[in-house]
Amino acid sequence: QVQLVESGGGLVQAGGSLKLSCAASGRTFSTYAMAWFRQAPGKEREFVAVSSGGGGRTSYADSVKGRFTISRDNSKNTMYLQMNSLKVEDTAVYYCAAGVFGSFDVWGQGTQVTVSS
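Given the sequence above, the corresponding structure tokens read:
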């Protein structure tokens, strides 16, 4: 089974950018749909973005559309989330997940993103 490790979180000012990475173990990375979710303090985990196994199909939450870009490099078993024009409300723990569209059963440990005003 694939294992996931996120990195790249940190503290950034509003309007800034961060790029998250999700490194996966295993030889079947390209067969998984991969997604980013986030959870802010006191709130439920919410969907952010998803990519098909080959990367040709992506989808985004309305709240991040036009600001965030999901991508993957299957040769490196790594998925990315480029986050631009960050807002204070983007502050959350960001998780990557593997599975199929609509159902993700493998999760990383999360990486904290904090956006200051």
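The chain has a mean pLDDT of 95. Try to locate this feature in the token string yourself.
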